[in-house]
Design goal:
4-stranded antiparallel sheet; mainly beta; Immunoglobulin-like
Length: 350
């Protein structure tokens, strides 16, 4: 907060705030054609304060959010004038995006955290279409508090949802951490509604919405999601206390892990004559990896973020044993590469 009266570079703030957000609207009458400069000052609460975080998003609103990237090829031998004409899209298809799963009670037992190690609330968006969709410029609204987050347009690598893929948005009020960190937290004490929308011809058009019950925050490490990706019915994915493992699947297909810990779709991996089997699964201290080949092969282990954890070269052995003593509980992926095939399968460490 700033004091009243004249403020100079040496003026300290009245009070400290923790990653708060302030929004200012600049009327277009203040801007001129050409270059404009927008200056922002951030003041510490005292001269010995050791930390400061600051992020600025500049959002321009136009009558239409449609964009078009066109390539013009020609042999130019003289002056050339090009004119772009934008017309209203009457048959624009709504992107096949779904709010697919959410968690309002994330915790360390889930094994799922952001790039800063924080176990924050999250919302998973699923793309059921056959083309990638960039979330840039779209809105994610927490309806109870009427808080609207607009995905920034400067980082398509982060905001693009691949065809048939997923993006997780962290509902943590930590926008400075990246494009997928929203300016709200999920309501864990009462029912609420999340809305995904976009601007079309100056009008906000809803893409998807979900109204979730107050029970979503009753227990740590459980999620609320569609029974299968994009389905109309929803269910809770509980934390399995028996095996000390989650059944939620952020960044993955819904309802593919049951409380036995075995992925429904990954009981066994089989490509032609080469097969792989993991046992016991779930595992606590060790995991056997059986591959029916006499050739040498390599084993890679990845965590649920796709980060490489371990590599094991295998020579003249049909069964390799993976020591899990240093592994934290969670879902992992084993990839085996032989001369004839590449096999991949999940396992759960509990």
């Amino acid at each position: 907060m700033s004091p009243t009266g004249s403020v100079s570079y040496g003026t300290t703030a009245i009070d400290a705030i923790n990653d708060d957000v302030a929004t200012f609207t600049i009327p277009k009458s203040y801007l001129q054609t050409g270059n404009n400069v927008i200056a922002v000052e951030v003041h510490q609460v005292n001269l010995t304060s050791s930390d400061l975080t600051f992020k600025l998003d500049l959002i321009g609103k136009v009558n239409s959010s449609g964009t078009s990237n066109q390539t013009y090829n020609a042999n130019v031998t003289g002056d050339l004038d090009l004119k772009a004409t934008f017309e209203k899209c009457n048959n624009c298809a709504k992107p096949a995006l779904f709010i697919n799963e959410l968690c309002a009670s994330n915790g360390p037992k889930s094994g799922f955290h952001d790039g800063y190690g924080n176990y924050s609330d999250w919302v998973e968006i699923y793309n059921a279409g056959d083309v990638a969709v960039d979330l840039a410029g779209m809105y994610l609204t927490e309806n109870t508090k009427n808080i609207i987050y607009q995905f920034p347009v400067y980082n398509p690598f982060e905001t693009t949802v691949p065809a048939g893929g997923y993006k997780v948005v962290w509902a943590d009020k930590q926008m400075w951490q990246g494009s997928l960190h929203a300016n709200f937290k999920l309501t864990a004490e009462s029912a609420s509604t999340l809305i995904l929308s976009q601007m079309v011809d100056g009008q906000k058009v809803e893409i998807d919405r979900v109204s979730y019950p107050k029970e979503v925050g009753r227990s740590k490490n459980e999620s609320y999601g569609r029974v299968t990706d994009g389905a109309s019915t929803w269910q809770f994915f509980y934390y399995c206390e028996e095996k000390n493992m989650p059944t939620s699947t952020p960044e993955g297909a819904n309802n593919t892990i049951d409380c036995s810990g075995v992925s429904i779709e990954d009981i066994i991996s089989d490509i032609g004559s080469i097969t792989m089997k993991l046992y016991p699964n779930p595992a606590k201290t060790f995991l056997n990896i059986a591959v029916n080949t006499s050739d040498s092969y390599g084993i890679w282990v990845y965590d649920d973020k796709g980060r490489s954890i371990e590599y094991i070269p295998v020579v003249n052995e049909n069964v390799a044993t993976l020591n899990l003593q240093g592994y934290v509980p969670g879902v992992y992926i084993v990839k085996v590469v032989t001369k004839e095939a590449v096999l991949q399968q999940k396992f759960v460490k509990y």
